[in-house]
Structure formats: C-alpha cells, structure tokens
Design goal:
mainly alpha; Growth Hormone, Chain: A; globular; 20 helices; about 0% strand; 2 domains
C-alpha cells in the first residue's frame, strides 16, 4: 500500500525496518496478540486471491471449445485477473492506507464472491473476461493489505518466517487451484472452477472481519489520486498491448496501447517527483536492495504463472490428459514450493538475499530447459513432474528473498509501498509473462499451422475462412476437425505439432527472461556483507 505512514501507538517514533533477520535495537523481534490467528486470517485472504489467479488455466481448453474462442481471447481470459489486480494494486492499496486497511480487506474479499459467480455463469467469453477483470480489482483491494499488515505487525526473524509462509502459501495456492479446478472440470464443467472459490471467500471474509485489527497505524496523508489513475492506465495499457501484438490485424491497436503506456509512464514519473505525498517514493525505489528485488520477483513469479498457463494446455491438447489429470500434474510444484520456503528463510538470514535468489533462478532455468527439450508429443509424465517440481523449488527459494528485500529496505512509513510492490511482483509479473508467452504461443501456433497448410497437397482446397479457423487456436482446429471428419486425424496432428511449435517459442522466451533476471541479480544486487551495510545506511537515513 504505497503511501502508508505506519505510526507507533501514542505517536512514538516507529521502529525502522531492516531486511537483516536478526533482531536489533532498531528492529525488535515482535508479533501481534493472537499472532497465529491473525496470520491465518491474512494468509487465507491471500489464498483466495491466489486460487482465483490460477483456476482459469486448466479450464482454458474447455472454455475454448464452449465459446469456439480464439487463442487471443483465451489469453485474455487467463490474464484478465492478473490485469485487474496488477493495474489497481498501487492505487487501491493507497486508498486502504488512508481510509482503512480492514475496510479494503473486507470489501475486496466480499466483492470476490459476486465476481466468481459472474464468471461461472458468463454467457459469452467477453463477459467472462470482464468477470475475471472484476475479480482482479476485488483482489487489488484485499491482497495488498495482507503483506503490509504482516510488515507492520511482525518484526525481526518472526516477520521473515511469516513472509516465507505467506509467500509459499500464495504460490502453493496458485498451483493448488489448478488441481482443484481439474477435478471439478471432470464432473461439473468449466463454470464450477470459478464458483468454487466463493465458499472459501465467505470463510475468509468472516475471519478478516473478526480477527484482523482495524485502523492499524493508518496514514493521515492525502492520497495521490492522479498518480493512482496514471498507474492504472500504464499497467493496463502495457498488458493489453502485449496481448494484441499476436492478434491478426492488431498491430495498430498494440502500437496505440504502447503509446498510451509510454505517455502514462512519463506522466506517472513526473507526478511522483512533483507530488508532496507521492503514491510511489522514487528515492526509496532507487535503492538497489529494493528495485533489483522488485525486478527479480517479477520474473520469478511471472515464470510460475507462465508455467501454470502453458502446462495445462500442453497436457490436455497434446498429451490427451483430462482436466483432473492436468490439475494433479502440478502437485510436485506445490510440494517442493512448501519444502523450499522455510529453507529459503534460513538462507536469507545466514547467506543473504542475493545468494538465495540466485539458487532459485538456477533451478527455474533448469525447469524451462526441461520444458523446451523434453515436453514433446510423446512425453511421459516424468519430464512433466520434473519441470513442475523444479519450478516449485525455484519459486520456493526465490520468492522469500524477493518479497523480504522489499519490506526490509524501506522505513515503516513506506511499508505499504513495499507491500504494493511485492504484489506487483506476482501480478504484474504474471500478467506480463503470461501475455508475452501467450502472444508467442499464439503467433508460433498460427505460423506453424499456416506452414503445414501451405505444404499440404490439399492446400488449394482449404478456403481462407477455414484456414483462419485452423490457425486461430487449438480449440478452433478441433471444431473444424469435427466438421470435416474425413480429415480429422490430419487436422488434429497438425494442431498438436503447431501447438508444440508455439510452446517452444514461449519456453525460449522464458529462458531468456530468466537468464536476464539472474544476470541482474548477480551483477547488481549487493552481496550479504554489502547488503547489511546498505541496510544500516538506509536505517540511519530513514531515522534522520
């Protein structure tokens, strides 16, 4: 929550946050009353947000068949939730800081219920996209509050442990959502995967109302509304622009959206420099412990969402898994993520964030190499399990230092800004990586299928309308195969090979992003000793 000014009770000088996990006089090891119950309530609210983030991925093949949707439309459904959350998280977090975090927590969790129901009963794919967007906006109200309150209520090693649990649970919930959705799809169809989070949201709403303290050192400063609007425009235009790149004839729309993004970014930066109470403190954001961790987290969590986006489609479209099998295929990611999280917290304490981040990056890199080389048309389950397990292990290692460095490198008065950025790591990272990899998947699929048609002896008999349907998406190709049963086997084989070609484009892009992120961490993020020196300097600067 970007403009948070968390004050100690009675107007006392608030303790300064540091990322050093050992308790110091500046940062006592503290926890709130009923710490376990409060943590459970906050983590459950975050779990609802993360479950809704991933449930669409397993259902995409079924949704595509139901609406005969293009791959671009499916990409928008997949990214709609991340888009709504990422675009709104800074502004809504700031409103929560000013007008009541518990209020935003309760309203956001409550709004998630009708958003889930609207998605489940959507009559068209466009209504489904709108419902996903609304769900993301609801999460933008509730989700930022969770980490900001953890930062405010806990300190020292206890905070590190809670953040590790928060990070691991969030990532595991994302993967667990795919498993639950897969089971529901086999019995109740795709609408059930969106409706299933509503009962959990009711429980989370009750716990948040009863357990989370109200008015916990909230800000009295004015909210930068202009900066908030600009932040929504710049994130939204960027994500939508990436998605329109792969749309046939969508080049002008993509360029226009990128132009809007550039103008909004310039306006946002100018506004933050000029505002007396900026939405985003650029001086704090310029600290290497902060901005490198932010960029690193975007790639880490983005690769998780990308793997959960492409994987279920590959399993169902190419390997022929049913939705339940595709959902349970991600189980290794959940297990290894939970195993790695407490180890990651210990490594952050003893070896520093840089060392732990690099371990996570190395493991995720191997995971994407496995996808590129071993996820083939005749693949068995073991390379699927290996890749998912490595992704979970890598995110488990890298997630904690990525979030912990943000909250640890800012003063308590900017805890909301750190939590908002931590949320952006997940949501903007997921939206951008899903959009980029989804656009490459779409473009690679269309290119490969067009080449297959051109090389076919029957190419002259394929009308432009049929070719458009064949190259639109795997689901559309299957619909054409049902219309022309005499060519069904050839169409299905071409669709599978074309999907694999597009997926390879996406995996290669993921590998490039991971390598660039690792290089950034290796060369720019300070080592453990320098990290502690910088945190001491930040503490002195912030106290002054």
């Amino acid at each position: 929550m970007p403009s948070a000014r968390i004050r100690a009770a009675g107007g006392a000088q608030p303790p300064t946050l540091t990322a050093n996990a050992s308790a110091t006089p500046a940062e006592p090891d503290k926890a709130p009353a009923r710490a376990g119950l409060v943590a459970a309530a906050l983590i459950l609210v975050a779990t609802v947000a993360n479950l809704n983030l991933a449930v669409a991925n397993v259902a995409l093949p079924s949704i595509g068949v139901s609406f005969q949707a293009s791959q671009t439309a499916l990409d928008l459904v997949a990214v709609g939730y991340s888009l709504g959350l990422a675009a709104s998280v800074l502004y809504l977090g700031a409103l929560g800081d000013r007008y009541g975090r518990k209020l935003m927590l309760v309203v956001g969790t409550a709004l998630a219920i009708p958003a889930s129901l609207l998605a489940g009963f959507a009559p068209t794919i466009y209504v489904l996209f709108a419902a996903r967007l609304l769900g993301g906006l609801a999460a933008g109200m509730a989700y930022p509050t969770t980490l900001a309150l953890i930062t405010a209520l806990w300190a020292g090693p206890r905070r590190t442990k809670v953040i590790a649990l928060w990070s691991a649970t969030g990532g595991a919930a994302t993967a667990l959502g795919a498993m639950i959705a897969g089971v529901l799809l086999t019995k109740y169809g795709w609408p059930s995967v969106f409706v299933m989070s509503a009962p959990l949201a009711v429980i989370a709403l009750a716990m948040a109302w009863l357990l989370v303290p109200a008015h916990v050192d909230e800000s009295k400063d004015p909210v930068d509304h202009l900066g908030g609007v600009l932040s929504i425009v710049l994130v939204g235009s960027l994500v939508l622009g990436i998605n329109f790149v792969a749309v046939p004839g969508g080049g002008k729309a993509a360029l226009g959206l990128f132009g809007i993004f550039a103008l909004a970014l310039l306006g946002f930066l100018a506004r933050q420099r000029a505002a007396k109470f900026p939405l985003y403190d650029l001086k704090v954001a310029a600290r290497p412990v902060f901005w490198v961790a932010a960029c690193a987290g975007i790639i880490v969590f983005g690769t998780l969402m990308a793997a959960m986006f492409i994987g279920p489609q590959f399993l169902q479209n190419v390997l022929g898994y049913n939705s339940a099998q595709a959902g349970f295929a991600v189980l290794p990611a959940v297990v290894f993520m939970m195993v790695a999280a407490p180890i990651s917290a210990q490594l952050v304490n003893t070896r520093g964030a840089r060392f732990t981040l690099l371990i996570g990056y190395a493991v995720i890199l191997v995971a994407f190499v496995v996808m590129l080389l071993l996820w083939t048309e005749n693949a068995t389950y073991w390379p699927v399990a290996l890749a998912y397990g490595l992704v979970g292990l890598g995110v488990g290692f890298a997630g904690t230092p990525a979030s912990h460095s943000l909250t640890g490198s800012v003063p308590v008065s900017r805890a909301g800004m750190a939590s908002g950025t931590a949320d952006l790591q997940r949501d903007l990272g997921g939206a951008i990586m899903q959009s980029i990899l989804g656009a490459l998947l779409t473009a690679g699929y269309a290119s490969a299928f067009a080449s297959t048609i051109a090389a076919s002896p029957q190419s002259a008999r394929v009308s432009s309308a049929v070719q458009n349907e064949l190259t639109k998406s795997y689901a559309s190709a299957q619909a054409v195969a049902q219309q022309y049963p005499q060519y069904s086997a050839q169409i299905t084989a071409a669709a599978k090979s074309s999907f694999l070609a597009g997926a390879d484009w996406a995996y290669a892009a993921g590998i490039i992003a991971i390598v660039l992120g690792a290089a950034l961490v290796f060369f720019v993020f300070p080592n453990h000793d320098r990290e502690k020196e910088l945190l001491t300097e930040y503490a002195a600067e912030d106290s002054a």
